[in-house]
Amino acid sequence: LAAALLAFLLVPLASRADEPRLARITDLIETLASPEFAGRRGPKAQLTANLLVERFKGLGLAPLFDGSFEQPIPGSQPNEVIGQNIGGWLEGSDPKLAHEWILVAAHYDHLGVRGGRLFPGADDNASGVAMLVEVATALANGERPRRSVAFVSFDREEDGLVGSRHFVENPPRPLESMRLLLVADMIGRSLGNVCPELVFLIGTEHTPELRPRIVEAARRLPLRVGLISNEVLLIDRSDYGPFRIRQIPYLFFTTGQSPVYHRPDDRPETIDFTKVEAVSTLATRIAADAANTDTLPGWTDPPVHEVEEARVIHDVLARLLNNAEDLGITPLQRIWLKAQIRDLGDAIARGRLTPEERRRMLSNAQLVIYTIL
Predict the structure, then answer these.
(1) Cα angle vertex 213, ends 210, 215, to 5°?
(2) What pTM does this model have?
(3) Deepest in the core among 67, 210, 351, 373, taking most CB within 10 A?
(4) Are the beta carbons of 57 and 14 closer than 8 angstroms?
(5) Rounded to the nearest 10 degrees, what angle do helices 21-32 and 45-58 cross at?
(6) Radius of gyration of the chain from its Cα atoms, rounded to whole angstroms
(7) Does the N-terminal peptide bond of residue 264 adopt cis geometry, omega within 30 degrees of 0?
(8) How far apart are CA 61 and CA 76, in angstroms?
């Protein structure tokens, strides 16, 4: 039965390059979040790994890991394997640039079945995997990019970024030649369910030269791109973390934490599939530009901040306040939010934030993330 199910799932997915993008995205998210995949954890994680291997093969990608699409993740005991990263490789066409590479990634694991309840993980992170596959489909079926591109789906992200940590400690290609990471985690809903047009991109504080390219890539898409820094999150919330520590330029795509985060209600029927499609188009444009441009910016330190970040946070706080009743925001929290919105508005009107104002903005944003959302 398992073999028959796998055959049914894999054969169509490997031949859908001509199917409309929205249909492919919808089908993949519904498949990965279905009961058959059991929350993509434990023994059933292999179903996802097999699906991704077959999809990469169907696109004509080369194996990324010494002739294999799979990179086993060792456990603490001898010969123990606790998961596997899945990766494909698209060799660059330019003899002078092909040794450089960019990485497009998204973790595929989720929480599995706990206490007899399925955690489907439609947004976290079947949506990100759909984006990964769409970027791979576009680049593999188009004109071959000048730089090489790796496509990787990490395992065990939910256990402390285990898969991505193992990847950077055992890279299949030299990390010194890696020019950019694009990674997605939860791109199918919106922050607090009240910011439907917004997608956050984190990382440009260390590559400010990419900002105008991102603005151009987002042109005519039904999205507002919010460029914010990793400092807003306080900690590394996804697989960009191990790369950030090594000062590898990265862009982290996320639409934010919704009320069904890490709950059994994270189901496909609540996903905004058109938004996943728009974010996938954005990521495809950025990846294609990065893979073909003559030069890419390196890591900038100290980070460069712009007042636009404050404008994004100001607008998010205002949206939360406008939906205070639905979000269960208390009267005292509403008074506090109004004060923060007023203070940020004053700073934005001046066109700059003092270091103390920015420190306060970050602290307040983190307080919202960990107490209100």
Answers:
(1) 110
(2) 0.94
(3) 210
(4) yes
(5) 160
(6) 20
(7) no
(8) 32
